[in-house]
# Entry
Amino acid sequence: MIPLMKNAFFNEYSTKQKLADFILKADQLSMGKQCFSFELAFARKQGSAHGVLFNSGGSANLALLQALKNLGRLASGDRVAFSALTWSTNVMPIIQMGMVPVPVDCMPETLNSMSEHLQLCIQKNSIKAFFITNALGFAGDLDKIRDICAHNKVILVEDNCEALGTQLLQGKTGTFGVAASFSFFVAHHLSTIEGGMLCSDDDELAEMLRIVRANGWDRNLEAAQQVRWRKQHNINSEFQAKYTFYDLGYSLRPTEITGFLGLIQLEALDENLSRRIRSYLKIEEAVGLNDDLLQLRREHLCVLPAFAMPIICKTSELKEKYQKQFSGAGIEIRPLIAGNMLKQPFYEKYCDTSFALPGTDFLHANGFYCGNYPELTHLELEQITSCLYKY
# Structure
């Protein structure tokens, strides 16, 4: 069988050996210097000023919306747009913050929301922010989307959990908005078992994210930042400061295990991404020879270490046919992320579903994917491509 993912880590055995040794020798396993070192290293790799590490990518998304609300940049009742093809923890924080989610359609050929979809959304809705998902390692025309957001005073934030390493000519995904979230869950490009990160160039936002991450207190801020908060609120002693909570927050801190694994996996990230690129190109070639399948567009991307191998059929009947071929060959498959988010029970319970989303509906009805991980062998890739032939 070819599973969606094979190992918890890249270079699995040596990583587990190093992890076991670290745990045996570590003086501290709660968040500390390993986490802070990983934050710095990952932000540098991404080209961002700040990295704030969390216990999951979903927690990072929640903290981001809370931080923007704490700062007064967003408020209850604001309309926040989101990519309709996405994961639940991209949408749930919008609802949990008392904001109104507004879905943005996706283009089947790119899997993503494009500038034209955002422009149409803005014409019909007065939105304050757009939480875009860079789906399955692909991305929309983020440079144009950034310009539209700037022109309309819309806050752009990216869910880049599936697109680590993807690049447009204009820059890396995860650098086009005020902040971007990353996931380090097993099977993502970089795995720390559980874990997530927010990257940003916004000093004020990064400071608030650290407050939100740790119950609303200042313990993980720089000394000058702590002094400013304490003076502002007339906190006159270190004893009092340790138990003062300045704004709404959660306990979303990672452990030193997350930081340690992140540093180890970051060392091998370039090789990991290169292998994913090579594997995807082989599958893409097979898709291009079959007119039952939609050829995905990526001319606006210059680097694509695809998170998965998406297969988009031209009809739902063809989808059933190719799903059977994959399953019969022992290849594990799953829907495109979670399909059209408006069809999810939680969304139907809390939100307005009266939106026309033809592109997202097409992907929901006609798409699926199999795994793309760096351990895929030549024979396994041949097995996958054999399921893509038109018989």
User: Anything to note?
Assistant: Residues 269-386 form a domain with the Aspartate Aminotransferase, domain 1 fold (CATH 3.90.1150.10). The chain has two domains: 12-267, 269-386.
